[in-house]
Fold each of these.
Amino acid sequence: DVKVTQSSRYLVKRTGEKVFLECVQDMDHENMFWYRQDPGLGLRLIYFSYDVKMKEKGDIPEGYSVSREKKERFSLILESASTNQTSMYLCASSFSQGTGANVLTFGAGSRLTVL
Amino acid sequence: GEDVEQSLFLSVREGDSSVINCTYTDSSSTYLYWYKQEPGAGLQLLTYIFSNMDMKQDQRLTVLLNKKDKHLSLRIADTQTGDSAIYFCAESMNSGYSTLTFGKGTMLLVSP
């Protein structure tokens, strides 16, 4: 089974701190994604990457950056955390299937609280 | 732009069938997906359907697609308490290089 591992399940940070959320997948997937999940808003795409050192903005990239130095690792960075970034962050990975479907495998999530 | 709508909440009794509905706006959507999220966990793919199909069945799950009305449904037969979760509908377009757009999720509560 594909595993997507998010290193931190729960984090508490202070406003203004720099925050790193790490995600590692073990099945050589080309594509990796970061979403945030908020009650009543569902999942919103922050950034995604289709290859090493490549990144694309999603729907809500403001206040975030990403890094993909190795194929298996995709990091989400909050340069200066703010209280409105308190959320559940979900990492996902996928490969392009022959049928063309983009089947995402998700990690368990990282719940970030910014005080 | 793309938009996916779902009702927010559904409550059923154990043993009944559950039907979760979803509508989408983008007629060029090629693939439609159903994901399940249990408490404290990430999303897990249940099934997906290609837009040239109108039905897909997998054990207790039946997916119906009405492309003309842009309506997708997930039917769970003989619903169990373990089916209590949030169910997300999602769409993608064209090929595996596209991203998924998710609905806000439907919370299914199954009572004994």
Note: Residues 17 and 77 of chain B are 5 Å apart (CA to CA).
Amino acid sequence: DIQMTQSPSSLSASVGDRVTITCRASQGIANYLAWYQQKPGKVPKLLIYAASTLQPGVPSRFRGSGSGTDFKLTISSLQPEDVATYYCQKYKSVPPFGQGTKVEIK
Amino acid sequence: QVQLVESGGGVVQPGRSLRLSCAASGFTFTDYAMHWVRQAPGKGLEWVAVIWFDGSNTYYADSVKGRFTISRDNSRNTLYLQMNSLRADDTAVYYCARDPYYAPIYYFDSWGQGTLVTVSS
């Protein structure tokens, strides 16, 4: 089974900082990678699919990149409303999620 | 707009059964595969089950195989999850989630608000 590993598990950054979350697959998954945002107490929300395609309505400060086994989610300028846990997920078949990265404001 | 509204959660004793429902609106239900995804308290997301747009195929996570059954009633725009032989580690918020396609590609573009299932004696 393919495993998804995110790093870091948590981070704290200042408003306006550039933030990068990494997701690594244990085997190549082409670009079958999605990113979700889950704000505290809220429902998960799809941010990005196909590794880099923004879901409609998602702010352009979010960017996904990568293919194969190594992927990144970058927030170009962290905003207070971006406080959340972010999950990567391999798809196209039974989907493991990453363990999540909690993003906080310093 | 897409709306998914789960119901049926609650407190249940180990070994008992529960049926969850998810009422869909705002889109053509019969055009999409549907999933159940769960989240144990304070934990991450775990995919549970999927059903094709027409109900012709279903797949399950190993952790629930043989105990849970996903189904849908396209005439009622409703998704179901029948959960039998419940265990403490089934305690979670259960979300219904829409796949972008009729045959699943296994990512989730819309989510319900979730319903909490607590398995406890």
Note: The first strand of chain A starts at residue 4 and ends at 7.
